[in-house]
């Protein structure tokens, strides 16, 4: 049994289970009316449903690919080049994003949403932007500031939710 064949199936099932657990946990949130038919449980339940649907789609995509005939392109590369790729080279961006996300949570507690989020978004853009577009620092700064402010206004005044202020 080739375990790589089932990675997406297992990942999809894990995401679905996490979505179901998150949905069940959302019922422990105290209900407060945000406005109209919206309440404090709506957004977490919506996110949980998205997790369940995305996990299901990932699992179904993998199941479908199990029944397709492999093509020449799907055959693994057995050359020496594939053996020389290190773990760090393959997963560098994922590890850095994971560390930046932890730092963002820490910065959010200390500095609040309005300071921590633009810094996080700028770092995130630097990591994910292709090397050919890395010279767009001004654009990335403006985009991270504008989108952070837009999200702040949307949550604070549109949804009447208070975002973390930090110690300041």
UniProtKB/TrEMBL annotation:
<dbReference type="Pfam" id="PF07331">
    <property type="entry name" value="TctB"/>
</dbReference>
<dbReference type="InterPro" id="IPR009936">
    <property type="entry name" value="DUF1468"/>
</dbReference>
<keyword id="KW-0812">Transmembrane</keyword>
<feature type="transmembrane region" description="Helical">
    <location>
        <begin position="94"/>
        <end position="127"/>
    </location>
</feature>
<keyword id="KW-0472">Membrane</keyword>
<feature type="domain" description="DUF1468">
    <location>
        <begin position="10"/>
        <end position="164"/>
    </location>
</feature>
<protein>
    <submittedName>
        <fullName>Tripartite tricarboxylate transporter TctB family protein</fullName>
    </submittedName>
</protein>
<keyword id="KW-1133">Transmembrane helix</keyword>
<feature type="transmembrane region" description="Helical">
    <location>
        <begin position="42"/>
        <end position="60"/>
    </location>
</feature>
<feature type="transmembrane region" description="Helical">
    <location>
        <begin position="133"/>
        <end position="155"/>
    </location>
</feature>
């Amino acid at each position: 049994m080739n375990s790589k064949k089932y990675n997406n199936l297992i990942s999809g099932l894990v995401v679905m289970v996490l979505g179901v657990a998150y949905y069940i946990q959302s019922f422990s949130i105290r209900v407060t009316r945000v406005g109209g038919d919206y309440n404090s449980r709506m957004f977490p339940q919506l996110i949980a449903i998205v997790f369940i649907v995305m996990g299901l789609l990932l699992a179904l995509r993998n199941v479908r690919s199990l029944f397709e005939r492999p093509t020449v392109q799907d055959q693994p590369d057995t050359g020496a080049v594939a053996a020389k790729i290190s773990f760090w080279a393959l997963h560098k961006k994922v590890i850095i994003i994971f560390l930046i996300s932890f730092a963002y949570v820490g910065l959010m507690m200390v500095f609040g949403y309005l300071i921590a989020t633009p810094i996080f978004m700028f770092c995130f853009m630097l990591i994910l932007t292709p090397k050919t577009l890395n010279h767009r620092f001004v654009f990335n700064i403006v985009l991270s500031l504008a989108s952070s402010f837009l999200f702040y206004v949307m949550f604070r005044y549109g949804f009447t939710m208070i975002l973390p202020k930090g110690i300041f």
